[in-house]
């Protein structure tokens, strides 16, 4: 464990807590893409298949349970909670996220470190996570301005993978033979997708005005 | 890299 990875995990944890807090306290999911939340639930379900077979550490197992629990409960809130579901804008959240799942699955069948069930699904989860934010960013552009909590959620979600990139650089230089191109490239692409959001988020914060992405 | 190595990252 290194400071970059710990910072990344804490930032990731903060992002899901901000979203859960928003949905649970104000009972609203306005501006939040259910498609992105469903993709993240799939990401965690396919990445943590080893949660009961490979014990790494209490921290690792605890965090996996938190991410699995939070992502599935957010999906449940947005789909089934009688009050929250009313604030879900399904007419705007129209990104065909199944067009993301199939290509990621096919790509994972081709590009992976070992062609086994678990390894292919693990690789699939990395590719899917890289693009999972797209429905949310599209929804953001459609609904124009967004509330602060949703903006903070997206910012933290993007920042966590940026911390992971520093973690991979650190591990590359400190651990011999630590080379994993697949998460590195997927993680870099994921962080780049947040590029313009970070740009507008920073400027709205600097000029202290409402966050608005260009149409 | 040892492909079978444990996935210690989240």
Automatic annotation (TrEMBL), chain A:
The chain crosses the membrane at residues 55-77, 98-115, 121-140, 152-170, 182-202. It is found in: Endoplasmic reticulum membrane. GO terms for biological process: protein retention in ER lumen; protein transport; vesicle-mediated transport. Pfam families: ER_lumen_recept. The keyword RNA-binding does not apply. Keywords: Endoplasmic reticulum, ER-Golgi transport, Membrane, Protein transport, Receptor, Transmembrane, Transmembrane helix, Transport. It is a multi-pass membrane protein. Belongs to the ERD2 family. This is ER lumen protein-retaining receptor. It comes from Cannabis sativa (Hemp).
